[in-house]
Write a structure and sequence with these properties.
mainly alpha; two-stranded antiparallel sheet; 7 helices; about 190 residues
Length: about 190
């Protein structure tokens, strides 16, 4: 078959053009076309995400919205570095807020710790009296433990309430990752 003579019109055959729908052709032109930003009718040449999408990031250099998965903006700005810089800023803000909450909790806990130190007297006195009397302690001596236990219980509850925000912030810092940052970033519209 290779040695057969082919008609002359076979040599002039051209590949058939595949006709896709208009939308598919428009998308392919947008993605694979030249880099100019306008086309006939003033519409944008490239497809861009919505500004409030979780997958969008606003380029710090040109201000255009790009997909977060792109390494570079169409203007040439390094978007992956921008996302990582935003993550580091978010992490630094978490640490600063945790430090602020820790200082506030320490200030609020000072009077509570003083009350706890005073409550120790309710434990020390009955024990001291037991040593002096030779181990025989009446019921009234044991009743001194009750106000001490009540004071320590109240101090423990107050400490738990005061340090709850600080502890929650500490857990958030331990779980901080780039995925958590992107999820929290996606909840608020990008600026």
């Amino acid at each position: 078959m290779l040695r057969e003579e082919l008609p002359d019109d076979v040599l002039e055959l051209r590949p058939r053009k595949l006709r896709l729908s208009r939308d598919t052709e428009r998308i392919l032109e947008d993605v694979c076309g030249p880099d100019d930003d306008t086309r006939v009718g003033g519409r944008k040449k490239r497809l861009r995400p919505n500004a409030d999408s979780i997958n969008a990031i606003r380029c710090a250099d040109c201000g255009q919205v790009e997909y977060i998965t792109r390494d570079y903006c169409r203007c040439g700005h390094y978007l992956a570095g921008q996302v990582f810089d935003e993550f580091l800023e978010w992490e630094r803000e978490l640490l600063e807020s945790h430090n602020r909450l820790a200082v506030e909790a320490e200030e609020k806990m000072k009077p509570v710790r003083r009350v706890g130190a005073l409550a120790l007297l309710f434990f020390i006195w009955p024990l001291y009296q037991g040593v002096l009397t030779g181990g025989q302690m009446p019921l009234t001596t044991w009743s001194w433990f009750l106000p001490g236990l009540a004071a320590f219980s109240v101090c423990a509850v107050i400490e738990k309430m005061v340090t709850a925000k600080r502890d929650a912030q500490a857990q958030l810092i331990e779980a901080a990752s780039i995925e958590l940052f992107l999820n929290e970033r996606g909840l608020a519209p990008s600026s």
